[in-house]
């Protein structure tokens, strides 16, 4: 009998979560109801930030936030090539031009040194970016102090893509999402992330004006509050579209699930950190590079780098029913981006990382026995 498949990540749902969703399903509000605000408050309280705006998914959050900070046709947006394509697509949705900043090969995060060099060259060329989107790869914080200093010097907007990083910290006592260095931070609640709402995302910010703008454009740009209407003294049924927006709302049953999941977030992160520490101990001495040890990372992913025969190791692990994965194909190498003019060799650190990276299973449901099996199988595959 073969072993059950071990996923690289997956959700953890208990009876409390189910009861929370059922409660909403039996209520009068399935969407645009009170559970949305309750979920937003659970995230903002955790992240120590005043404003949160729940949205349909993190891609929607990136799109809306880029729009809200003024990105439009002809503008230039930079992000990391070592990410999911949404980090770049949000700019293209708005007609902006996308470019990338190479990564630090150890952390997988945008290199602040590479960003500084690229900004200096861009200033000389008279073509600075309107927006920079660093990505907290695998749950590990970027060097936001250095990136924030560059923001002040060069005047670009800054959005943190924290799709991997809810529950992680910049420094002890400083949760990701709480920084006022950036304009906003975007989280994801996809099932492989630290908590889940099925699909879903949230933008958090210190900027009330930005939060108000996000709430407007997540729901068609429609206003119903009489105090905010442009046409005053209208009938009670009256509402108006004040600008072009989108239907990027989250449902109340998703929000209820998220609020229930938030009660368990610290436990989930603790479990992931213990599993990561165990990998760090047990994988020492093998012919691979381990990720940097960290008690601040949310450990969304545990990514090792294998210098030789990575693809053969991948196949051996998958044949053993272990759901290893590769995170990520650098965005600029996808066909849709090469048609924009990107070429192999432009971002060598990202391409080198991609050629060697392998994500091992890491999630709060991973048992010690299953982790032992992953380690033993990897040891054999590397021989």
Write a concise synopsis of the structure shown.
This protein is an alpha/beta fold and 383 residues long. The chain is 38% helix and 13% strand.
Architecture overview:
- This protein has 383 residues and is an alpha/beta fold.
- The chain has two domains: 15-262, Aspartate Aminotransferase, domain 2 (3-Layer(aba) Sandwich), CATH 3.40.640; 265-382, Aspartate Aminotransferase, domain 1.
- 38% of the residues lie in helices and 13% in strands.
- It is built from 13 helices and 13 strands.
- It has helices spanning 15-25, 34-47, 58-68, 86-92, 112-125, 144-154, 208-217, 252-262, 265-282, 310-319, 335-338, 348-356, 368-382, and strands at 51-55, 76-79, 97-100, 131-133, 157-161, 169-171, 174-175, 184-188, 201-205, 222-223, 240-241, 302-305, 357-360.
- The strands form four sheets. The protein has a seven-stranded mixed sheet with strand order 1-9-8-5-4-2-3, sandwiched between helices. Strands 6-7 form a two-stranded antiparallel ribbon.
- β6 and β7 (174-175) form a beta hairpin.
- The model has no long low-confidence stretch (mean pLDDT 97).
Task: Show the helix and strand layout.
Blueprint: H1 15-25, H2 34-47, E1 51-55, H3 58-68, E2 76-79, H4 86-92, E3 97-100, H5 112-125, E4 131-133, H6 144-154, E5 157-161, E6 169-171, E7 174-175, E8 184-188, E9 201-205, H7 208-217, E10 222-223, E11 240-241, H8 252-262, H9 265-282, E12 302-305, H10 310-319, H11 335-338, H12 348-356, E13 357-360, H13 368-382
Parallel strand pairs: 2-3, 2-4, 4-5, 5-8
Antiparallel strand pairs: 1-9, 6-7, 8-9, 10-11, 12-13
Helix pairs in contact: 1-8, 2-8, 3-4, 5-6, 10-13
């Amino acid at each position: 009998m073969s072993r059950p498949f071990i996923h690289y990540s997956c959700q953890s749902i208990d009876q409390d979560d189910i009861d929370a969703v059922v409660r909403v399903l039996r209520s009068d509000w399935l969407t645009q109801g009170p559970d949305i605000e309750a979920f937003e408050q659970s995230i903002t309280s955790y992240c120590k930030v005043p404003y949160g705006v729940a949205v349909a998914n993190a891609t929607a959050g990136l799109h809306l936030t880029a729009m809200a900070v003024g990105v439009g046709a002809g503008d230039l947006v930079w992000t990391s090539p070592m990410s999911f394509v949404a980090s770049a697509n949000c700019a293209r949705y708005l007609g902006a031009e996308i470019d990338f900043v190479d990564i630090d090969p150890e952390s997988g995060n945008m290199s602040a040194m590479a960003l500084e060099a690229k900004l200096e060259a861009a200033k000389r060329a008279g073509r600075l970016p309107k927006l920079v989107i660093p990505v907290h790869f695998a749950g590990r914080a970027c060097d936001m102090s250095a990136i924030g200093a560059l923001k002040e010097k060069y005047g670009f907007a800054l959005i943190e893509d924290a799709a991997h990083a809810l529950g992680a910290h910049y420094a002890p006592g400083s949760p990701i999402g709480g920084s006022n260095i950036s304009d906003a931070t975007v989280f994801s609640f996809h099932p492989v992330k630290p908590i889940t709402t099925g699909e879903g995302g949230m933008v958090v910010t210190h900027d009330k004006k930005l939060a108000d703008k996000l709430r407007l454009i997540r729901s068609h740009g429609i206003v119903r509050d009489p105090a905010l209407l442009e046409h005053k003294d209208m009938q009670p049924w009256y509402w108006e579209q004040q600008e072009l927006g989108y239907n990027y709302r989250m449902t109340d049953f998703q929000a209820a699930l998220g609020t229930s999941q938030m009660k368990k977030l610290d436990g989930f992160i603790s479990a992931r950190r213990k599993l990561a520490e165990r990998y760090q101990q047990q994988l020492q001495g093998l012919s691979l590079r381990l990720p940097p040890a960290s008690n601040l990372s949310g450990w969304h992913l545990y990514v090792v780098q294998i210098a030789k025969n990575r693809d053969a190791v991948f196949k051996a692990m998958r044949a053993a029913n272990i759901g290893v994965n590769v995170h990520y194909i650098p965005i600029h190498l996808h066909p849709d981006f090469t048609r924009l003019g990107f070429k192999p060799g432009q971002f060598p650190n990202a391409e080198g990382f991609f050629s060697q990276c392998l994500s091992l299973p890491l999630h709060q449901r991973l048992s010690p026995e299953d982790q032992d099996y992953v380690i033993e199988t990897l040891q054999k595959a590397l021989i």
